[in-house]
């Protein structure tokens, strides 16, 4: 990705994958936190709808197409359930079990969770702006003023 597609979003994905790999590596090498790791994988349920959305945009599917709109509804619904609620649960669990965790594991999980939550907030904002925000149409008066200038 870094070699063939040098865009800002590419670097976001690289950071995302590095964070996820570091967390899963701790779980795998320590043979601990399997339940927490499985909960983290629930976030990927939403990725199905995000990828379908991206594919539809790549083939220039209209945002008014019924299939696009249905996928959009599932995308937003699974985003809330499998990203927002899951990451909220993971935060609560991490704070409640802080004393049970090794300090380094707590900080790795906490920093990683903060990064992923920030990235998800930005992603949700982009989705809402792209698919749900209506650009205000200029009034007849504004259109006339633009043509006169």
Concise overview:
It is built from six helices and no strands. The chain has 149 residues and is mainly α.
Structural summary, described in words:
With 149 residues, the chain is an all-alpha fold. It has helices spanning 8-30, 34-41, 44-58, 66-96, 103-132, 140-148. 78% of the residues lie in helices and 0% in strands. Keywords: Membrane, Transmembrane, Transmembrane helix. One of its GO terms (biological process) is plasma membrane organization. It comes from Rhynocoris fuscipes.
Major sheet description = none
Which sequence of SSEs, written as H and E, runs from N to C? Answer: HHHHHH
How many individual helices?
Answer: 6
Please mark out the parts with pLDDT under 50 across 5 or more consecutive residues, or reply none: 142-149
Shape: globular
Name the structural class: mainly alpha
- State the distance separating the first and last CA atoms: 45 Å
> What is the residue-averaged pLDDT?
84
Approximately what portion of the residues adopt beta-strand conformation?
Answer: under 5%
Helix coverage percent: over 70%
Radius of gyration: 20 Å
Number of strands: 0
């Amino acid at each position: 990705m870094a070699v063939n597609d040098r865009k800002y979003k590419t670097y976001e994905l690289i950071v995302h994958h590095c964070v996820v790999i570091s967390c899963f590596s701790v779980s795998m090498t320590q043979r601990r936190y399997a339940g927490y790791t499985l909960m983290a994988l629930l976030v990927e349920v939403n990725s199905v709808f995000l990828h379908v959305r991206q594919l539809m945009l790549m083939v220039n599917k209209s945002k008014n197409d019924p299939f696009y709109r249905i996928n959009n509804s599932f995308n937003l619904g699974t985003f809330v359930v499998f990203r927002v609620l899951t990451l909220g649960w993971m935060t609560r669990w991490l704070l409640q079990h802080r004393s049970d965790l090794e300090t380094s594991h707590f900080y790795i999980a906490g920093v990683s969770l903060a990064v992923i939550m920030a990235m998800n907030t930005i992603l949700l904002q982009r989705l809402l702006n792209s698919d749900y925000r209506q650009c205000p149409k200029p009034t007849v008066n504004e259109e006339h003023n633009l043509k006169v200038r």
